[in-house]
Amino acid sequence: MPESRDRILIHRLAVFARHGVLPEEETLGQRFYLSLEARLDLGEAGRSDEIGATVSYADLAGLAHRIATERRFRLIEALAETICAEALAAFPQLDALTVRIDKPSAPVPLVLDGVAVEITRTRHA
User: Fold this and answer.
1) In a domain? residue 53
2) Which domain holds residue 78?
3) Is 48 contained in some domain?
4) Residue 114 domain flag
5) Is residue 2 situated within a structural domain?
6) Nearest-5° angle of CA 72, CA 67, CA 103?
7) Is 103 a residue of the active site?
8) Tell me, what's the pLDDT at 125?
9) What is the pLDDT of residue 109?
10) What does the pLDDT look like over 83-99, one tens digit per residue?
């Protein structure tokens, strides 16, 4: 089955969490931004105008928010992987999911706007 060209996009969902390898990151916490690109066939939803024919972006965002705020990860790679795995399990309509985690206050002793990790996982891989 070819990957769908249709997408649901969630841009920069802000969360406050305590992810990171340093003890201060666990103690103080910081803001993260989660962006998701869900690939699925939206044709039926477009024709029927029925929520049951798609994945609710509110439900998808809620799942990502819960994972990011209720669990602690040392690596944002692990956070992104967990969001992908749980979303693909929870929403069988998804063909693929790309998750980007932005960490604007990464403890790096350089002047930068932040760091990010982006991964894509597909149902058929």
Assistant:
1) yes
2) 7-122
3) yes
4) yes
5) no
6) 65
7) yes
8) 56
9) 79
10) 999 999 999 999 999 99
